[in-house]
Specification:
The structure is a single chain. The protein has strands at about 5-10, 15-20, 25-30, 35, 40-50, 55, 60-65, 70-75, 80-85, 90-95, 100-105. It is built from no helices and eleven strands. It has a single domain (about 5-110), classed as SH3 type barrels (Roll). It starts with 5 loop residues before the first strand and ends in a 10-residue tail after the last strand.
Length: about 120
């Protein structure tokens, strides 16, 4: 069985976490064994970008062939996708492999300005 990697945002910082309990609130232990309530929990896609950086939900990716394609990693319809929005339309790109096609440039929590909205 594979280990599930989670990352959480507590409103101020991102951190790797382990789930302690699930109820109305989800409690986590961070790397320093500090408890916190997460605003958002992100699951690892289990793939790395062109620079070897692990990709998680809510990461912002840019297409290396078309620098105008910037989107957010989302989990929908049973798989991970990159959701790209612009003034004209919204497109979804399935993540089967990241390879040299996408690079992580931020997260929606730390770098919302990268999405241009």
């Amino acid at each position: 069985m594979k280990n599930i990697k989670l990352r959480a945002w507590d409103g101020q910082k991102l951190g790797q976490v382990a789930v302690l309990n699930i109820g109305n609130l989800v409690s986590f232990v961070g790397s320093a064994n500090d408890f916190f309530i997460a605003d958002s929990v992100m699951l690892s896609v289990v793939l790395k970008d062109k620079n070897g950086v692990e990709i998680y939900e809510e990461d912002i990716l840019r297409n290396t062939a078309d620098k105008e394609l910037i989107g957010v990693v989302v989990y929908e319809s049973g798989g991970f996708n990159v959701l790209v929005r612009n003034d004209l339309h919204t497109r979804t790109y399935m993540i089967l492999s990241i390879g040299d096609h996408w690079e992580k440039i931020g997260t929606i929590h730390e770098n919302p300005e990268m999405l241009g909205s």
